[in-house]
C-alpha cells in the first residue's frame, strides 16, 4: 500500500514539513510495510517557501531587505540552480505576521522588500520567478516593489512619493523607463489564493484592508488611491488590469505582477503542486492524506486540501483531510473530491493546548485511519 501525505502548514502550530512527518510517524507505528511519501504543500500563503524548499531541494538564501514599515530585516528566498528558478514569498519581506497588531498600517506599509528580493534573484541569474503573494501587510498595489526595481513614482511637483498606498492618491507621474532591463526576460508566475479585483466592494482594500489596520475611512481613502495608481498604470502601459481576477491579491500585488512583470496569475496550490511534481507522486497511490488548520466553505477558493482532492480524485484516489477545525461549510469539500474529513481534537481543549499538541494529534489520527485500512484490506 502506498499513501501520499501532503498537508499544508497548521497555522501557529506546525509547518507543512513537520505536519507531514507527524502523520507518517503515526502510520509507521502499526504498519511499517506501508510506503509513505511525504510531500508538504502550500497554497501561496505563509509557509509556501518552506514547502517548496522541502519538495524541490532548492537552496535557502537570505538577503537584507526592508520590511513592510521600511525597517532593515533579513528575508529568505529560494534558489533552484538547475532550473535557474527563484522562489520569492512576499510574506518573508512584507508579511503581516512580522508586525505587531499596533504596527499594522495599511496606509503606509510597503512592498519595497519584495522588489529587493526580486533584485537578489536577478543578480543570482534567475530566468524564472515564482512569486507567492499570501500573508501581506501591504496595500500599496505593488508600488514599493516597482520602486525597488527602478520605477519612479512622482507627485505633481516631480518629487518621489512617500511609501505606502495612501501616497498613491498624489501620484502625478509613473515613470517605468528605469525598470531593470533583466525583467524583460524573466518568466514570472504568481501564486494567488483569491480571485478579487483591484478595486471596489470585492477589491483589495475593502476585503483585506481591515485586517491590515485600515479603518472604514482608510478603506475609502486607499481604494481611491489605488484607482489613481491604476489610471496611471493604464496610461503608461496602454492596457488596464484592474479588473483581472486576482489583481487584488496581497493589497494589489497581483495587479502589479501582471501589469509590470507580465506574470501569469494562477491558484497557488496548482503552482506549488506542479513544482513539487505532485501528480507523478500519485502514481500507484492507494490513499492521499492532506490537511491544514481549518477546513471550511472558503477552502473551495483555492486552499490546499481542496486543490489536492481535485487532483487526486480525478485519478480515482481517495482523499482524507485532517484539520485542526471543521468550520461552517466544510461539507462542500465532498463535492470537490474529499472522501472524508476529521478534526484533530480528541476531546474538549483550549486552543493553546490544541496548538501545542498538534503533532501528537496528527500522528494519532493518521494511525487510527491506517488501522482501519489494515483491518479491512484483503
TrEMBL record:
Superkingdom per UniProt: Bacteria
Pfam families for this protein: Gly_kinase (PF02595)
UniProt keywords, alphabetically: Kinase, Transferase
Molecular function in Gene Ontology: glycerate kinase activity
GO biological process: organic acid phosphorylation
Keyword presence, Hydrolase: no
Protein family according to the UniProt entry: Belongs to the glycerate kinase type-1 family.
Protein name (database record): Glycerate kinase
Organism: Halomonas urumqiensis
